């Protein structure tokens, strides 16, 4: 049990992440009131839900967001590959006052990792002899490359003045997700790595985000992120 009042959770996305979210939500005392794929989303017969948790594919993301806004269902989304539309989606969220959390990665470990990378990057900015790069590895079913998390790490570095940081991606069977930031020098390398051992961290983080969003008083004038939840 999570210690929070039980929620009615609608899961959007019937893949491995959707199943992982369903298991975690049930374990934390919540009720899963539906599991939507494209067919169910198109049919439009929505159950009564306190929050929707979305793990779909990039080409479905905008339709999912619009449907949740139209139905006034608060949304937690971990779908990536749509960030070119971020400004337009956020404008729609603001106009509708729609409660929404989005993150390219809901793992608490990744959240802490990004904070650690920024701390190290600030130090390394004083040492131009080290060249930074980002490399990520995911399972072969992941459609977007580089990952949304790798892009977010690149944006973190860019915010500190790091320019020209190369991002590479690799797809291997059975890898939940690994991200590596390396500063390469002529005589040594410095590397920070986060490796997910399974999907549990992503699922748990998304359900915790749903619990947080349910109790958030607003205002709902932007898309919330992990920084809002965990600081």
User: Low-confidence runs (pLDDT<50, min 5 residues)?
Assistant: none
Task: Round the Cα radius of gyration to an integer and report it.
Answer: 18 Å
Beta strand %: 15-25%
Q: What's the order of the H and E elements? A: EHEHEHEHEHEHEEEHH
* Overall number of strands: 9
Name of the level-1 CATH class of the largest domain: Alpha Beta
CATH superfamily (homologous) name of the largest domain: NAD(P)-binding Rossmann-like Domain
Verbal overview:
- With 231 residues, the chain is of the alpha/beta class.
- It folds into 2 domains: 8-106 and 200-230, NAD(P)-binding Rossmann-like Domain (Rossmann fold, 3-Layer(aba) Sandwich), CATH 3.40.50.720; 108-196, Dihydrodipicolinate Reductase, domain 2, CATH 3.30.360.10.
- The protein contains 8 helices and 9 strands.
- The strands form 2 sheets. Strands 2-1-3-4-5 form a 5-stranded parallel sheet, with helices on both faces.
- β1 (8-12), α1 and β2 (31-36) form a beta-alpha-beta unit.
- The longest helix is centred in the middle third of the chain and has 17 residues, at 108-124.
- It is globular, with a radius of gyration of 18 Å.
- The two termini are 23 Å apart.
- The mean pLDDT is 94.
